[in-house]
Amino acid sequence: MVVIFVQRERSEFHWNSAKNLYRAWNLAPFSETMISSIDFHKTSTYMVTASDDDSIRLYDVATASCLKTINSKKYGVDLVCFTSHPTTVIYSSRNGWDDSLRLLSLHDNKYLRYFKGHHDRVVSLSLCSGGECFISGSLDRTVLLWDQRVEKCQGLLRVQGRPAAAYDDQGLVFAIAFGGYIRMFDTRMYEKGPFEIFSVGGDLSEANVVKFSNDGRLMLLTTMDGYIHVLDSFRGTLLSTYSVKPVAEASTLDATFSPEGMFVVSGSGDGSTHAWGVRSGKQVHSWMGIGGGDPPVIKWAPGSPMFVTGSSELSFVIPDLSKLPAYSIRK
């Protein structure tokens, strides 16, 4: 695996291309391993990745170093995310016979808790930033609500398709997307059902990921047919839709907002990465990856202009957003 830190460069839209200019630190031998998940800790410089070689890697972004590699050969690893503690993560399995979630201490490689309840692959995982709760969605067509301190799930919602679920940044609301709609739930009264249901413009293909912008005003939803929908999270108005190559059934189309919510960066079914302006709806840059056609995983670093893409490489990209007029006005 190669970690690439991309330096700033001038281009028509002032976005960097990992193919044109970069410095690389070989933190691990290159392989055909594919990264399946990336997360940043919100108050430290740590980043964690999950790979299909059944490993979890902890990085310190400040020093461009891999601090630790932990193998999960028995259970496999698919999705991973930090808890509030910088060396504790929750991750899902990939072995096909045990679909439990696990709370793992990276410090001493010790399991702290098992969360059993799903009966098929977990395809969505989101932690509530305001507490100990998290939510998971599975191909068994259930969404489970959890408390990290308790092994038994605290709530169950049944859906009619592959679910994508996410908390907003304040942890007051969570969204569940499937079947062409996004359903909004109040975390304190989710048992009463959704308080709003938003349409995504007739796209009935399987939901992949749903995410909120940092200020909670926007949402995005990606689908298997290669669409990225951006909505007003209060009114449900569909603001824009971007189109990329569709993804395979076993893959996930990932996308993320920039910190101020002015841009969306998405993967594609052909392995490329694209940047879009939310206000204009236009593409501002694109570049090809090296993931062999698999869509990259994408994550913005908290409070930073840097985002990371993961395929068979980790690419740290710093676009020069200050050169974009829309960004300058927003600032």
From TrEMBL:
WD repeat residue intervals: 35-69, 115-147, 257-286
Compartments, record wording: Nucleus
Statement: the UniProt record of this protein carries the keyword Transcription: yes
One Pfam family per UniProt: WD40
InterPro entries membership: Swd2/WDR82, WD40/YVTN_repeat-like_dom_sf, WD40_PAC1, WD40_repeat_dom_sf, WD40_rpt
Entry's family note: Belongs to the WD repeat SWD2 family.
Name of this protein: WD repeat-containing protein 82-B-like isoform X1
The organism of origin for this protein: Camelina sativa (False flax)
Species classification: Eukaryota, Viridiplantae, Streptophyta, Embryophyta, Tracheophyta
